[in-house]
């Protein structure tokens, strides 16, 4: 990796230039038209033709800007790759975004077609559809574009393309080799990605990875995320009678799988939500320096409690951001027999708990799952990876079937990584606002294989408004964020890292 | 209640007479035709017209046998009542049966119409439909009649009618006043019954209650049941965030309702299934005499374990029949978020456990529910009978909503009740087999209000084969049981209780 120093003076001059408001607005106007055109191509990865049509569009748009482009075959749908001609003396930045979107249910949207972008202005009661002609006189940054993937994640791709345009108009040379990798299956968990990254390792080689996905902090301040928790899952099933039995005939005689499951789960955590399985939190240190960064995130624990309507949070961390530094053990689902109007007077045949374990870099997913399994064994349960046979049932008093999900690793880039320091300074000077720095985000992105394979510092630089209805009907992008993203990428791509 | 002594010699003479096999077979042949005719009238209590048509049939059939009949209006569908002309010097026997049946799904039956009785003979692979002409030469007691309510519970009504016929043919005087009450909503929980029994208290007054419903013991031996457990239900709901939250963002921060529920439930029982809530088993004594009766039931705990495929039963009682002498606490359902393919990475908004509590006479349902609620309070939970408001959520760390079902009481007639002693002797001498005596049955019958209102000894005398597919498709009655029921009722109704 090339050494990186930010020339602060240069950053400032860029900032002044990029903040020529008229030039930005004109570029935003262009970006709106380009985004409408892009959104109009449906992008559900369940339809491979959708992905092909989007790739054709991307080839043309990146080609027009002087990028070399390629379609990278994978085990499933292709990835799109673009790069500026490589120059040996420049560091290389790899940008990851995705062009597929969540599946749509048009009937749930307040517009006829989620792929036909609608312009709306904010009102006292929400949003009101207006004609695009309203933008002719002035681009109102509070107006929003509604459509699937306006925010997640076609918007950032269009911001990138228009930042490139603006850099060209300003005659700026980009002090990086720029590689762009665009995923077509992110919303379907990017399953082919890990193998593809291994296969195309050399092509993807870079000094830093920048991920433009997800929303900025709710405060509206520029945001940089240094890591994401990973995830793995476990399914635990306990057993009662082989078929559901009449609870009159067999209640307090046939073993009850619900009580067994309850007893197993209840021993995994204390009453304040801390995992009590030995070793679960091993290796994690949250020192004063880290606490300081975590405290700098302008979250309000009181506001979260008020919004989610609970009195006291679990006590894994002392406050919200600290809690994210630890792996979680979450009961995401419970099921046995029936509840509600369908409930029947039976001793159910089984009871199931679905667990998810969010991981941090110190907590290897396989290690944590083994700890949970050891704990279960120590409670006197026979742990199986399959539904027990009759002979297994007759030979063991207590049986748990444990099914394990795959592991998506966590990643976390050092807060003092030089490119990260430069990134933060660039954003702070561009927007004259303190950057919100997340040491690690609670959620998981399928990007971890990149980072683990390429072994480079990685940063999420979110571009879109937090209230964008990502993954839901009425997804939208605030036009002001389109301007934000163009400016942010302009500044990042024109800041000489040497 | 009149004093009751069984003249054993008389019983024997009756037996000899009633066992004139040709006379019985001839009566069975008549009963088969009468049952086919009765089954042909659909009897789903969801259709009041069905119930009316059945009552018309019953009025005619009981009227033909010299009974006075009446339709008793209730809050919902009418009950059918019939009685012989009352004579002051005779004790009165009240017989409860029901003529409604479970709803049918014809497509799940192996015959075109569940209300059109089909005759089947047993084969190596199950049953094979045969023509009713096959009965012309001989009534084969191993053949079966398939149709809705053949066993549950029109069969016993037809057995009763034909026992009356046979008594008349034999010129026997019935040494009882006989009252018959036939329920038309038993399969829909007999909701109007408690009030109706109060309303018609005088009409229903009797010295003993005999309930002809349910199957005999699997051994095929004559069976008398002295009691049934009652039932009540509770629904417990714990709360997480007000709406499901992303488990990455809020896992190990927002309270997890599944863990809370698990911790609550796990403290209610020990690991061997005994309820540990203080007072739950108060008042129950199972002494050596009782144990002897319980042991006399020809159950095999090993066979139950083998059939239900578990190694060790819960330890509430030392063996199956003993376990039924205690109230149960059964988790009949658990639900939170989703399990299986629909599961999502969320912190669910709530978790629910559906409990049923089977009751014994010592265990008042309201008292047990209060014990459970006290236990929950002692664990630091705020117990509500409604979904918490925001202010309740913000003021209390741990909240449980408890919803309570109504209570159906248990009943249990003394094993030494004189009529019961006579009943057992009559059956034993009629069938030359030891009667299986159940001190209490695990399940619940909606008959408890009768017994509690009328305060008379009550006995279930089941008539039908245990493998009758009651409540399911392909319900059937073994023709031999039709003969059994006619003989049993003949013997009971001709045994002078004075």
Automatic annotation (TrEMBL), chains A, B:
Q: Which Pfam families does UniProt cross-reference here?
A: M20_dimer, Peptidase_M20
What are the Peptidase M20 dimerisation domain coordinates in residue numbering? 227-380
- Tell me if Signal is a UniProt keyword of this record: yes
Q: Which region is the signal sequence? A: 1-18
Q: Which residues form a coiled coil?
A: none
Supply the alphabetized keyword list: Hydrolase, Metal-binding, Protease, Signal
Q: Which PANTHER family match?
A: BETA-ALA-HIS DIPEPTIDASE, DI- AND TRIPEPTIDASE DUG2-RELATED
Q: What is this protein called?
A: M20/M25/M40 family metallo-hydrolase
The organism encoding this protein is Flagellimonas spongiicola
């Amino acid at each position: 990796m090339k050494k990186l120093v930010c020339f602060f003076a240069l950053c400032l001059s860029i900032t002044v230039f990029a903040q020529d408001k008229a030039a930005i607005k004109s570029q935003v106007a262009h970006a709106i038209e380009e985004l409408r055109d892009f959104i109009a191509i449906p992008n559900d990865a369940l339809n491979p033709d959708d992905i092909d049509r989007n790739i054709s569009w991307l080839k043309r748009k990146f080609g027009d800007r002087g990028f070399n482009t390629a379609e990278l075959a994978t085990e499933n749908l292709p990835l799109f790759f673009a790069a500026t001609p490589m120059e040996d003396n420049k560091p290389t930045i790899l940008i990851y975004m995705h062009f597929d979107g969540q599946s749509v249910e048009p009937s749930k949207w307040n517009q006829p077609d989620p792929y036909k972008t609608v312009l709306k202005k904010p009102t006292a009661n929400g949003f009101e559809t207006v004609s695009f002609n309203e933008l002719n006189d002035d681009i109102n940054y509070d107006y929003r574009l509604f459509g699937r993937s306006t925010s997640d994640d076609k918007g950032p791709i269009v911001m990138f393309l228009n930042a490139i345009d603006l850099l060209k108009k300003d005659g700026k040379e980009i002090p990086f080799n720029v590689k762009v990798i665009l995923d077509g299956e992110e919303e379907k968990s990017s399953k082919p990605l890990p193998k593809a990254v291994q296969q195309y390792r050399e092509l993807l080689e870079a000094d830093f990875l920048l991920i433009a996905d997800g929303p900025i902090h709710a405060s509206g301040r520029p945001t940089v995320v240094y890591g994401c928790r990973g995830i793995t899952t476990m399914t635990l099933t306990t057993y009662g009678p082989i078929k559901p039995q009449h609870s009159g005939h067999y209640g307090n005689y046939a073993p009850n799988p619900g009580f067994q499951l309850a007893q197993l789960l209840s021993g995994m955590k204390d009453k304040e939500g801390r995992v009590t399985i030995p070793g679960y939190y091993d290796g994690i240190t949250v020192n004063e320096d880290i606490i300081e960064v975590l405290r700098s995130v302008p979250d309000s624990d009181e506001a979260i409690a008020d919004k989610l309507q609970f009195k006291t949070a679990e006590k894994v961390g002392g406050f919200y951001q600290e809690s994210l530094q630890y792996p979680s053990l979450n009961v995401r689902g419970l099921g046995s027999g029936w509840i509600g109007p369908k409930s029947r007077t039976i001793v159910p045949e089984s009871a199931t708990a679905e667990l998810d374990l969010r991981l941090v870099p110190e907590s290897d997913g396989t290690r944590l799952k083994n700890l949970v399994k050891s704990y279960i064994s120590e409670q006197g349960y026979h742990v199986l990876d399959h539904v027990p046979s009759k002979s297994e049932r007759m030979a063991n008093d207590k049986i748990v079937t444990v099914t394990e999900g795959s592991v998506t690793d966590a990643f976390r880039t050092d807060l003092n990584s030089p490119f990260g320091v430069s990134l933060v300074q660039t954003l702070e000077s561009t927007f004259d606002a303190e950057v919100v720095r997340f040491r690690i985000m609670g959620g998981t992105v399928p990007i971890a294989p990149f980072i683990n394979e390429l072994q480079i510092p990685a940063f999420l630089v979110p571009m879109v408004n937090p209230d964008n209805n990502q993954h839901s009907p009425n997804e939208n992008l605030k036009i002001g964020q389109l301007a934000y993203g163009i400016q942010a990428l302009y500044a990042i791509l024109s800041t000489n890292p040497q």
